[in-house]
Structure formats: structure tokens, C-alpha cells
Amino acid sequence: MTAKYTPLKDHDTPIKVLFTGYLCTVGIGYMFALMQILFTHGMADGKFGLSIDDIVYSYYGNRSGTVLENQLNGAMKANASAQERFDMIEWVRNGADEADYKADGIEKIIEERCVMCHNEAASGIPNFKEFKQLKALTAEDQGATFASLTRVSHIHLFGISFIFMFVGLIFSFAETTTVQYKCIAIGMPYTFLIADILSWWLTKIHPMFAWLVIFAGMGMAVSFMFMWVTSILEMWLFKPVFIDGIGSRYLQMRDSKEASVVDHLLSGMKSLFQKAGPAAAWATQQWLERGWPLLKGLFKK
């Protein structure tokens, strides 16, 4: 039966160049986004690298100290010397009095180290030229505000969904992947995107949901890489990879009349679930006895 679409390898060269240019651009953008996460959220605990503590501090907050103090010991640590950070933290712990703001030299440190970014021209971050906005950061660190979560959530939902729409559109012309796998791969990013945004709000309510942020982010990355790599290989390296190379074994397994790839996958998952049965039962019991009552109590508050 004639295919209802033109496979990626059979598209005209200008179309393949267009698709490749887009994929390479968003691929580089994705890498920079990951780097940005490492240098912002990944420094929330003062150590480079993303961890559960970083997620908790970013959304739930580090409630053992003030916002300004935690930022000076975390993401903003490299922007001031040890002495300057000590002076600012001491000023905060002494009550962050406006009279001491100039007398203790804090105003000079703010102007030299902070105002270059925290000014009236910057959007989404406090303006340190106004003392009231700086003073607000000397309160207990409760993480992201609901207002900031609302702003960032709608930006991510609109922007990232457009990225995955075009990546998924290009991937839909792939011929080495079955329709079933295509549907899963194209739908996965949207599922994980919604889970990612939801996990921010849940972590703001309780830190136990911080693991969901990392899990959802990894799910988006895996689905993106699968579609990206498959599309590039089919457009430019179809014969060396899928005819003469390692990809030929996958195609033979896919077209085999014996047990299919899906059958092998389902069989492996069944075996895994059988072994994980006791652990799942224990986790369910813990959730019903501790997790769910705790969550209901938080919502009531």
C-alpha cells in the first residue's frame, strides 16, 4: 500500500535543510536552557549541580533563613566577595534597618554588585534601587511566589508546546518508527510538560514533590532527544545507519513475524512489575497512611 506521507529521506533537499536548521537551532537552545538551569536553580544550595535540595529551595524555599541570605550563600555567591556577603548577612540579621543601610556600607555594596542587574529596566526581578523591594527580601525565604509561578507557568506552556509541535511534526514523517511509537513519542513531551509545571506548584505546597520536577524534566529531555536523533538520522544517514548499520537489526526485529519489539517490551515490564510488587504495595500503604493525609491537611490550611 502506498505511504500516505513522504518519508524524511525522500523529501527534497531544501525541505531537509529547513527541517535540519530548525532542529539544530532548538537543540542548541535546549542545551543553553539546561545550562541556565544549572547556573540558577542548580546553585540554590550553594553547590554546582542540580539536586533535590536545589528544587526544594527554589520553589518551597529554605525556611531556615531569609531570601537575601540564602541567595548570597547560593545562586548569587560568586557575585560578591566573602567579606561583602558577610557584611550584608550581618545587616539582615541585625534587622535590616534603613538607617544602617548607608552607615554600614550596604548601599555601596548593592550599587557595585547588584544594581547592574537589579534595576528598573529588568523585568521579573526586584529593583534594588528601591529600598522597599530590597527590604522585602530580608523576610523568611518561602521560595517562588504564586505570582511568579503563574507568570512562568503560562510562558513555559505556550513557548515549549510550540517547540514540541514543530519537532513532533518533523518526526511524524519518520518511517523507521511504528505508528504506535510515533504517537507515544509525540505525546510524551506534552504529558511531561504539564507534569513539570504542576510539580512546581506541588513543590511550593510541600517539598516532597521535588522529585517530580526532575522526573518530568528528564521525561521531556528523553522524548526530545529520541525525536531529534531519529529525524536527523533518517534525513541524512538513512542508508549507513538503517540499511548497512546497527539500525538494520532494529528494522528486522520490528518487521519480524515472531515476537515484536512491543512484545519484548511488555514481557520485560511484566517481569519488572512482578519483582516490584512488594515494593509497590509498601509505597502505596505509606502514601495512604502518611502522604495523602498530609496533603489533605495542607489543602485545608
Chain-wise SSE layout:
Layout: H1 13-39, H2 52-59, H3 67-72, H4 82-93, H5 98-103, H6 106-113, H7 131-136, H8 146-171, H9 179-205, H10 210-236, H11 238-243, H12 247-255, H13 261-300
Helix pairs in contact: 1-10, 2-10, 8-9, 8-10, 9-10
Short description:
With 301 residues, the protein is an all-alpha fold. 69% of the residues lie in helices and 0% in strands. It has helices spanning 13-39, 52-59, 67-72, 82-93, 98-103, 106-113, 131-136, 146-171, 179-205, 210-236, 238-243, 247-255, 261-300.
Describe this structure in words.
With 301 residues, the protein is mostly helical. The protein folds into two domains: 189 residues; 75 residues, no CATH class. It is built from 13 helices and no strands. The termini are far apart. The model has no long low-confidence stretch (mean pLDDT 85).
Largest sheet: none
Uncertain ranges: none
How many helices does DSSP assign? 13
Counting structural domains, the number is: 2
The string of secondary-structure elements, in order, is: HHHHHHHHHHHHH
Gyration radius, in Å: 25 Å
Task: Average the pLDDT over all residues and give the rounded result.
Answer: 85
| Termini gap | 61 Å
**How many E strands?**
0
Keywords for this entry:
301 residues; mainly alpha; 2 domains; 13 helices; 69% helix
